[in-house]
Specification:
One of its GO terms (biological process) is asparaginyl-tRNA aminoacylation. The model has no long low-confidence stretch (mean pLDDT 96). A hairpin with a 7-residue loop joins strand 2 and strand 3. The protein has two domains: 94 residues, OB fold (Dihydrolipoamide Acetyltransferase, E2P) (Beta Barrel); 293 residues, Bira Bifunctional Protein, Domain 2 (BirA Bifunctional Protein, domain 2, 2-Layer Sandwich), CATH 3.30.930. The strands form three sheets. It has an eight-stranded mixed sheet, with helices on both faces. It is of the alpha+beta class. It is built from 13 helices and 16 strands. The structure holds 4-amino-1,4-dioxobutan-2-aminium adenosine-5'-monophosphate and magnesium ion. 4-amino-1,4-dioxobutan-2-aminium adenosine-5'-monophosphate (4AD) binds next to strand 11, strand 15, strand 16 and helix 13.
């Protein structure tokens, strides 16, 4: 009977059942007569212990198998209720399915995360990365489940686009032009008419502009896909390619948008706590021993709210901290400010609302004070900014005015403006940085360790 290790742990088996499992050797040790293999078959976080003895014809060969050899084990299940693992397999036969060289880089000793990044193709075979990537998969599913249950329609927005949603100019250009012989127009500019799309294009920094039109047809929508930023940030929280969840809600203001994001986060955290118990226990023990307490707290508490103006006031008056960058009204919050607010002041996730319009995107709705916009960033302990959201400017004249202040080419966004012309409505949305969410849920401190193959400045290996 071919079985999965997951089922060994979750289904009823009897002492003496004949079973076959296939997997990879995680550890192996043995003497002349008896040996022990910790076998992982990928189906479950935990290993199964395989006992081998010299009764086996090829025992001498098997006991020397290097770590990570792929084997098939035929044997008998032995229930061992008093031992650490409730059962083991007494092998009658071990067949090598895929040999492993003795220089397999993941030997027993602990390796640094830096080293692991150089073997991104092998690191999912470790407990830490197995846990991270399984949780990443579960979180992704939970996000879809929550949104679908709440009638959000999933829209697949384009990766290649000609708009710059965030206006930060941090875009990777997409071109088929010959860089050694760039065609120029008469006035010396690059002639994009010669390029593949006959216009300047880039990898998307956000699917928001393209998902908004669907909110005005389906009411509640979302996009969830890869986004790209050519931002030269060398931190543990920035990647050049990352995934973003961007829900957009029609007939919803800033408060509705914040409520939705809070509920969604709690749903995902609860889902992962329900479905990845072994992984979370492992991470809590080995990566961050405050993890489970923090997740339980987040799932159970009401997030804090404070306006940017009040937050600056708090930061300016803070006496228990020496900031590298002095905060003042008009300055975008630095990560040290964000962490101070969420970790020292509120000690839980906190929405900062109504930021100065000067460092926020053009589409955010102007507040009556003329200085701030209806924006809300969610800051969380350990990470800083996890979510960026806002109410969108639905008033055509105000939006046009803001775009011209920012020197944007109205022709390029004609379609976006038309949403305000043909039946516009109050609407709002937000973007969750998926990797930052996974950092929050796993306790991992570097974004490079929650993406399968991280892309950061100077690094696009694999
Ligand atoms: O705050 P941002 O730039 O907001 C937007 O892109 C909006 N269009 C979202 C919306 O309202 N639909 O990005 C949203 C989130 C950030 O809060 C952060 O978590 C994450 O995306 N993020 C990054 N994550 C990793 N690496 C980067 N370089 C990131 N830049 C933003
Ligand atoms: Mg932001």
């Amino acid at each position: 009977q071919n079985i999965l290790v997951k089922d060994l742990y979750k289904k009823e088996f009897a002492d003496g059942d004949q079973i076959t499992v296939s997997g990879w050797i995680r550890t192996i040790r043995g003497s002349k007569r008896v040996g022990f293999i910790e076998l992982n078959d990928g189906s479950f976080f935990k290993n199964v212990q395989v006992v081998i003895t010299s009764d086996m014809e090829n025992y001498a060969e098997v006991v020397k198998f290097p770590i990570s050899t792929t084997i098939k084990v035929v044997g008998e299940l032995a229930l061992t209720p008093k031992a650490q693992q409730p059962f083991e397999i007494h092998a009658t036969e071990v067949i090598e399915e895929g040999a492993s060289d003795a220089d397999y880089p993941l030997q027993k000793k602990a390796h640094s995360y830096e080293f692991m990044r150089t073997i991104a193709h092998l690191r999912p075979r470790t407990n830490t990365f197995y846990s991270v990537f399984r949780i990443r998969s579960l979180a992704s599913f939970a996000i879809h489940e929550y949104l679908q249950k709440n009638d959000f329609v999933y829209v697949h927005t384009p990766i290649i686009t000609s708009s710059d949603a965030e206006g930060a100019g941090e875009m990777f250009q997409v071109t088929t032009l010959d860089m050694n012989n760039v065609p120029k127009t008469d006035d010396g500019k690059i002639d994009y008419n010669e390029d593949f799309f006959r216009k300047e294009t880039n990898l998307t920094v956000s699917g928001q502009l393209e998902v908004e039109p669907f909110a005005l047809a389906f009411r509640n929508v979302y996009t969830f896909g890869p986004t790209f930023r050519a931002e030269n940030s060398h931190t543990g929280r920035h990647a050049s390619e990352f995934w973003m969840i961007e829900p957009e809600l029609a007939f919803a203001d800033l408060q509705d948008e914040m409520n939705c994001s809070e509920e969604l986060l709690k749903y995902v955290i609860n889902y992962v706590m329900d479905h990845a118990k072994e992984e979370l226990d492992f991470l809590n023990e080995n990566v961050d021993n405050t993890l489970i307490d923090r997740l339980k707290a987040t799932a159970g508490e009401t997030f804090a709210h404070v306006s940017y103006t009040d937050a600056i006031d708090i930061l300016e008056k803070a006496t228990d901290v020496e900031f590298e960058v002095k905060p003042y009204w008009g300055l975008d919050l630095d990560s040290e400010h964000e962490r101070y607010l969420s970790e020292q002041v509120y000690k839980k996730p906190v929405f900062i609302t109504d930021y100065p319009k000067d460092f926020k995107a053009f589409y955010m709705r102007a507040n009556d004070d003329g200085k701030t916009v209806a924006a809300a960033d969610l800051l969380v302990p350990e990470i800083g900014e996890l979510i960026g959201g806002s109410q969108r400017e639905e008033r055509l004249e105000k939006l046009e005015k803001r775009m011209s202040e920012l020197d944007m080419n109205e022709d390029d966004y004609k379609w976006y403006l038309e949403l305000r012309k043909y039946g516009g409505t109050v609407h709002s949305g937000f973007g969750i940085g998926f990797e930052r969410l996974i950092m929050y849920i796993t306790g991992m401190e570097n974004i490079r360790d929650v993406i399968a193959y991280p892309r950061t400045p100077g690094n696009a290996e694999f």
